[in-house]
Amino acid sequence: MNNNNKRSIKDLDFAFIDTETTGTDFNHELIEIAVIRASSYDFTVLDEWEAKIKPRNIESAEEAALKINHYNDKDWEKAVDLEPALKTFLEKTENAVLVGHNLTFDWTYIHKSLAEFNLKPTFHFKSLDTISLAWQKLRHDSGIRSFSVKELANYFNIKQDKPHSALDDARTAYKIFLKLNEL
C-alpha cells in the first residue's frame, strides 16, 4: 500500500535508481534496472537490488546501446520478464523518493513500462536528480566541464567498476549525491 500522502517527504527513504535500455527512442525497452535504497536521515544503504530483464524485441535494439550497456546473451541467460521485475522494483521503491542521474530518462522508461502492465507507482511523486544538484553546487567550478556521470565520478574520484550497468550507475549516483551533499 502506498502511503505517500500521509507521510512527510522528509521521512521517506531515498531510492537511487538506474536503468539500461535497448536504445533512446520510446519504442525501445528496459533491459536492466537497479535500486539502492538509503535512509534519508543518515544516507546509510538499506538495500541493493538489480534485475536483468529479458528483451522482447531485441531485433529493434540500437547496436550502439547494447554495446554501451554490455548486453550479451550469456549475462542475460537468467534474465526475468519485465512485469515481475517492475513489481519487485515497486516493492523496493515503495514510499521512497527516487534519486538518479539524468532521472528523467529512467523515469520515462519506468512509467512507460508500468503503464504497459497497468501498474501504479508506489514511490513518491517528487524526485531528485544529481545533475540538478551538481549544477547548483558546481556550476562555477572551472574543474567541471559537464555534469555527466563520468565527469562527476572523475571529479569526486569515484571508481566505477562497470559504467552503464544499472547497479554500478545507481551506486555511482548514490556516491555523487553523498559528495554533493558534503559541499
List the main descriptive attributes of the protein structure presented here.
183 residues; 5 strands; alpha/beta
Explain this structure to me?
The structure is a single chain. It contains six helices and five strands, in the order E-E-E-H-H-E-H-E-H-H-H. With 183 residues, it is of the alpha/beta class. A five-stranded mixed beta sheet has the order 3-2-1-4-5. The longest helix has 17 residues, at 166-182. The chain is 35% helix and 19% strand. Helix 3 (103-116) links the parallel strand 4 and strand 5 (127-129). The mean pLDDT is 94.
How do the strands and helices of this protein lay out in sequence?
Elements: E1 13-21, E2 30-38, E3 45-52, H1 63-68, H2 82-92, E4 96-100, H3 103-116, E5 127-129, H4 130-138, H5 149-155, H6 166-182
Parallel strand pairs: 1-4, 4-5
Antiparallel strand pairs: 1-2, 2-3
Helix pairs in contact: 4-6
